[in-house]
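Memo to structure team: turn this sequence into structure tokens by end of day. - J.P.
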Amino acid sequence: MKKDFDPNCITFSQINMIYNARLSRRYQTVWIRAYIISRYEGIGTAEEAFGRLYLENSNFGDQLQIIFGRRAANTYSQLLNEFSAGIREMITAQLQGDTEAMQQAVDRLYRNVAERAAFLASINPYLNESQWKELLEGYLRLTIEEANSFASQNYVRDIAIYDELIALSDLTGYVFSESLYNYITSGGQCKKDMMPGECITYEQMNAIFGISMLWFELITWIRSHMLSVVENLGNEEEIHTRLKLVADAFGNAMRIIFGEEAGDTTERHINILIDLLDELIIAQKEGNIEKVDEITGLLYQDAHDHAQHLASLNPAWEESAWEPLLFDMVKDLINMSTALLAGDYTQYMDIYSTSLARAETTSEYFAEGIYQYLHRDGQFGII
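Reply from structure team:
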């Protein structure tokens, strides 16, 4: 008998499945946004961002191939590529002021959504076609609205739209991974869990995922802030306020698990990172090499202190693991700022891509540590 996905008992292997599905959606959202910014604001090479988006489509296809085979994976990857091409056609038409061509592109995008929903439902009977189509249509509507916000330079609205896209991406990833689990276990062949007998609820899983994704949020909003300062893209004050909310979220999450002092200290370290990066960009723009060197040293010192702090909170975390993770993040952010100020957009995009990959590694280490910490002490009731 098939073992249904149980939201009250989600095991470690299921968490990984959900995490990977959500991560794929997160990457898609990140690179669509990068492409939109490049097209409407003329920052960097649009085709570079578009190529990254195509790569993520292939990566998602690779995930499908493991379960559904090469033919099905290739078919869905092609549909994803058609969706990406449709976004490009829509933006091109809008930039050219061709209303008719833009509407045709939008119509094709909605047909593509319907085709993707129908195809996935055809290979996985545990995915509800109507629900999946509704989720994908919602994502498309928000993506179009995001493009329109840049076209009209309504940057304040764009911040809210992006947050909505991220939330919908996470929900879509969960629904998809749930259907995969039900498909995998449909013959009673349950996937072996890394930690048999241990499970958490859907709400607890969401809490861990939300906390771990804050590393992605940090990189994403630091990048947006850099663009606002260096390229005058968007409302600098509004973006900076949104970036500071990431520090608040880090602090609140850590307070829930490790206590008030731990939350305060974590929030302080994130704010120090943000403030020092602000000072770094100013010093770089002024060509003040001595100040740049001083701030660079302070950034690495704060990363060292932050690594010590995190390791002190949780026996599952090691300072020797945290320090290189945080040092790499600092290095990437410094290099990203340098490349952006130099107008080397290809290098800038490469560094941004690398920093996102490192954020993924950091998120995994962070999430696994919290999972082990709470399971060891039986404290899952606190989140």
